[in-house]
Amino acid sequence: xxxxxILSRMVQxxxxxxxxxxxxxxxxxxxxxxxxxxxxxxxxxxxxxxRIKARVIKQARMGEAAAEGLLDEVIDRTIAKAIEAAERGxxxxxxxxxxxxxxLPGVKTWFEETAxxxxxxxxxxxxxxxxxxxxxxxxxxxxxxxSETTRFVAxxxxxxxxxxxxxxxLNYIAESATSRAHAGQACRDLIDLKELDLAxxxxxxxxxxxxxxxLPPGEYEAxxxxxxxxxxxxxxxxxxxxxxxxxxxxxxxxxxxxEPLFSPLVDIWxxxxxxxxxxxxxxxxxxxxxxxxxxxxxxxxxxxxxxLTAASAGVETTGHAFPATSxxxxxxxxxxxxxxxxxxxxxxxxxxxxxxxxSRLHYVRCLEAASVxxxxxxxxxxxxxxxGRIVGPVRQMRFSESIMDLLRRVDGVGREWQTVRxxxxxxxxxxxxxxxxxxxxxxxxxxxxxxxx
Length: 453
Description:
alpha+beta
């Protein structure tokens, strides 16, 4: 069944139960992965999935259901389960209706070269990169994930959205007897893939990180490289910038919009239309994406909405419905940008009297939602910096910090961006749908570190 026929069948399904509001959304995904190590490619996998989700409003209550399988085999059953769920579902805001169609942004999200990146070509390019980056005593392994996704949304308010995306996600792990390092990248266009640069980055950092030394507990200046910052930013969406968090009065910035809460160097926005990130034309409800300012010069500007929170607040949705249970998670900014500064990484390092350079973090968990306090350990290459110079690698250290306090203590921002994927995070072990983060290196005045053991 071609794409237009799928969308047409979904529109028919929406109107198959007169007297009800119905929304159907679906993803048709071709997912491929190439896994490799120093010996070469050891696995190529390919999987195609079709998943459909139904939301139905009956007597002012919403029910949801989802299924995987052939469209004609699962659509009617999924709608029926959503109707059944609506009997005990969440009450809807007065006058609520599913969003109407909106003009989608003209952003390119599907690239023929990416879709045509065959297993043999992937193997050849990865093999060459691993060979060129090789160093004695270093084992280089990893995976390249490639996906083609077609998304559909239809509802009884007249919504009909259809969009295609391609994506490559490449990750390297370099290991020696005493060190480990990571390098990764996500992009939509094959032309942007830097497999050799990333391989060299992982191997080079692994070489530098050999034989790490113990670092005494204490307060240190710190530089978070983009992949380390990306291990912190997933908590911002669900806990801080979601309108649901504001309406439930659990966001740190609730009632504080317009106040200078963070460093004036901090600019944060969400923009799924920017091709420098992982662009996407519409949200899980089919609503057009656009740029939303969240923090400007350290001052919180607002929250993102889906149709449910927008109806409760009497405003328009900002196009941030998330592909998860909306009543639980609410809207989430899934394409966050952290504004770049004007300094190179070398310049940021040169400004440090005594601190640590953090390449990546491990086991990061939310410890307290109200202050967005998280805990974890440094990992994959952390280095001691003294008088503006890297003097050597250090062992893993444990930290417990409020991300809000870290944003207040930002005193330097790099000018180079990197785009990565991470799972959106919430309190406890909650980890849902991957979001895109386009981030620079960020320097903070202090980071409390203790022994990891």
